[in-house]
Structure formats: C-alpha cells, structure tokens
Specification:
2 domains; Arc Repressor Mutant, subunit A; mainly alpha
C-alpha cells in the first residue's frame, strides 16, 4: 500500500451548485416566514429537488443552518473585534449587542437554536457560536475594566438576554424588542460612582 495523500474533494458540478443555492434560498425564505421548524422536505419541494438531494447537501437541519448562518456569525464575531477600537467601551458593546439582535431575529426561532448550539459541542453551529461569544467576552471585559458595565456581566448573559429579546420581538413587534433591548443595556450599566 502506498502512503499517498487523502483524496481531494472533486469540485461540485454546476447542477449541484445550482441545487445547493436554490435549497439555501428556499430555506432562508421558509425560516424567515415560518420559523426554524419548517419542514426540510417542503424546502426540497419548493427548490424543485428530491429529498435525497437536500440531505446529500445538508444531512441535518443544523448543517443547513450552519450553511445559512456560519458566514453571518463569523461576520458578527469580526464586528465584535472591530468594535474593540470604539473609544467608548459601552458604545462598542451596545453596537455589537444591536448587531447580535439583528442576527438573532433573522429567522423565527433562531435564538433558541443558537442557545442550544452554544451548549452542544456536536452542533455544526457550535464553533461559530463560540466565536461570537469570544467577541462578546472581549467587549464585555473591556467595558467592565472601564467601569462602564456591572462587574458581574458576562458575554453569556448578553447572549442569553439578546436571545430572549429576539424571542419577545417574534411574539410582539420589532419596536417592543428595541424597547426591551434598551432596558437590557441599561441593566448592564455600572451604577454611578458615589461622590
């Protein structure tokens, strides 16, 4: 037996690329309109492909979510890193929190899926969620060190509360979510120093 390198993946055929693109577009539309529990078989039907084609590209719902969200989550983590340069640590944390809320409300039920992925190392979204949390950790630590947020605030707190606000926004209105986010951010603030 030879000691060759592992076989390289063959490039995806043009029809397979088109099918994958259609599946992602239909999944995005279905999840935005109906929520994360929308039938994968119905997504395949809407994309005009067989169920086997869908499962060939995305063996699990989480794999489909990672394909839809992975790049956006990595961008959210990158935004957090950029916001570390904001002159005001609290303003940087606020801007990142608003970006996280916009991301969490992208699809109905996404917040719950993200919270599960944070805890589940087997989830395809786990690594992306951890990158988002790492960015949040850095922003929260910077704001804590500047005395702008309470000393007990953590990135997991921020992530959980943003997820809760996203859920509340799904149940009522975007305006309600914005109001709740403002209350949440006020709750993070450190109490004013005594004179």
């Amino acid at each position: 037996m030879g000691t060759g390198t592992p076989a390289q993946r063959r490039p995806m055929r043009a029809d397979a690329r088109r099918n994958r693109k259609r599946l992602l577009a239909e999944a995005a539309a279905a999840f935005a309109e109906h929520g994360m529990d929308f039938s994968l078989e119905e997504i395949a039907r809407r994309a005009g492909v067989a169920n086997g084609t869908l499962y060939g590209h995305f063996p699990t719902r989480r794999a489909l979510l990672e394909a839809l969200l992975g790049d956006r989550m990595r961008a959210l983590a990158g935004t957090g890193e950029e916001l570390l340069a904001d002159p005001s640590p609290f303003d940087g944390l606020t801007a990142w929190t608003r970006e996280a809320l916009a991301h969490a409300t992208l699809y109905r039920g996404l917040g719950a899926a993200l919270m599960q992925a944070v805890e589940n190392e087997a989830s395809e979204l786990h690594a992306a969620c951890q990158a988002v949390l790492a960015a949040g950790d850095a922003l929260v630590a910077r704001a804590r060190e500047a005395g702008e947020v309470r000393p007990d605030v953590t990135a997991r707190d921020v992530f959980a509360l943003v997820t809760a606000v996203a859920w509340a926004s799904e149940q009522s209105s975007e305006l309600q979510g914005e109001r709740l986010l403002a209350f949440t951010l006020d709750g993070f603030r450190a109490p004013p120093a005594l004179p």
